[in-house]
Specification:
The chain is of the alpha+beta class and 158 residues long. The protein is built from five helices and eight strands. It is globular and about 50 Å long.
Amino acid sequence: MRILNASPGFSMPLSEEETKDFLTTRILNVHLATVNENGHANVHPAWYYYDRSNDKIYVQTSKQSKKYKKYYLKKNENIYFCIDDPNPPYKGVSGRGTVSVSEDFNFNGPIVEKILIRYMRNLEHAMAQGLLDLHKKGQYVVLEISPKYYSTWDFSKQ
C-alpha cells in the first residue's frame, strides 16, 4: 500500500493500519471523480465497502446512473476517490486507482449486502429491502476500485 502525505507541513499522513481502519470504521461517503465524454469532471458521492484483505473499494451503482449508463468508467478505467471526515480534527483518504465494472449477479450480491449493512446497520431496514429488490431485478452493477496510491491526512497529529 503506497501512502502519500496530502498536506505536508500541515498534517501527518495516516499509517497503513490507520488508513485501513479509517476506510473500514468511518461511515462516510466516497466521492468518485470521473471524466465524461466532453472531458468534463464529474463527482459522484456514493456508499462503499472497503475490503482490507484485498485492498479494494467496492461501490454499488444503478445501471441507470450516468457514471454507468454513459460508460465513463468503461471508456476510462482511471478513477479518483476521496473519503474525508468534515469534523475537526480533519482526517481523510483520497487517491487514484483503476476501476472495473462487475455485472455478475452472484459476485455482486454479497458486496451489495455488505454495503447495505454498513450504512443501514441491517438488511431488514425498509430502504435496504428496496435496494436489495432492485439488485435482485438486475438493476445494479458493482464498481471494483483498485487503488494505485492513497493520499492521507490527519490533523490530530500536528
